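User: I'm curious whether this sequence folds into something compact or stays loose and floppy. Could you predict its structure so I can see for myself?
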Amino acid sequence: PGGDYNTITGLIQYDFDQNGCDALDFPANYTRIDVNLNGVTTNSSVFSNGNGECNLYTSTTGVFGLVPNIENPTFFNVDPIYADVPIMIIDNSVITQNFCITANGVHSDLEIVIAPIVPARPGFTAEYQIVYRNKGNQVMSQLYGVNFFYNQNLMSFVSATQEPSSIVSGGMSWDFANLLPFESRSIYVVMQINAPTDTNPVNIDDVLQFTSSIMPMAGDEFTNDNLFQFNQTVVSSFDPNDITCIEGDVVAPSYIGEFLHYVINFENTGTAAAENVVVKIGVNPNDFDINTLRILESSHNAAIKITNNILEIIFQTIMLDTGGHGNVLLKVKSRENLILNDIVSNNAKIYFDYNFPILTNDANTTFQVLSNSIPTKDVTINMYPNPTSSLVNIKAENTIKST
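Assistant: Here's the prediction. I'll summarize afterward.
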């Protein structure tokens, strides 16, 4: 805010050795803190950044209540579980309120998402971000733990920001080690899409299928997000400032009340570096439960807040050069009272310094019974490892019958 304001700042850390949080402990990235004032909700939240730092700015006096909002709350103990911070005068002072998180029992939970960064066009390269995150309370490592699969007849692998541990026809794997609780990591993969003149042509409006998985699934308490499928429609051109619902334009009714993932891409198309960039999304409370919104990854360090159903991601002093690119990946649950054929929508405003905002496309998603030609994943069944040359494990919520 401009003018006079006070700041409530603090670190949110994960105390792995349970001896009290100190400078050696890990930051709890993108942890959400809900805010109330004098015991009344303000319909606002702030998030810790990539360094675990959280800041709340206010020009209002009163007693601010800060409540950690963690995705798997039963996995963790938080000290304090609720913090009252009084601000009796606006004098530009800074008050520190830290939060220390420890494990409650032993719980493993991993998730993985594929986000499109550069869309697929016939004959051009496309870029994909594989984001994986530790939502449990154990440090995780796994050989060949991150997997990415594609149709090798329609595209070819060009490069990745991390060298694959294994490459097979139509797929590749990476090791990961010491993935900390609350930590997200990304691998960017570039693929060459076939041209319409190739033996196996790719044309506009074709659909390319990708799958990613993360292991180990054994011991993972919520395996429905250890596997992610992405169906991408091939386009002729694209706007570098856009928003995409990764699940697609049409999803099965079973997604009602479940997480939908959104990636917002932005690019400085101006003639000078942008010192600050702000991404602003108005979340429709009739479509989404904003209390479930989670930030999974951000290309640059950002201050993130929610105020009255408006999400703001503020990249201060980003100094994004001409042609520079950034992105944010988030997820939010749709409302459980939605019905068949309902449509949910999101768009974003992207501000480069003091220019008028760029308004993205509308990412519309319809809950509809899918035809047989559009495959969907059955989240009740998981098979792992994949690939394998030996045993395969099958995990299902219901009884599996063989015929």
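Summary: The chain has no helices and 33 strands. The CA atoms of residues 30 and 48 lie 5 Å apart.
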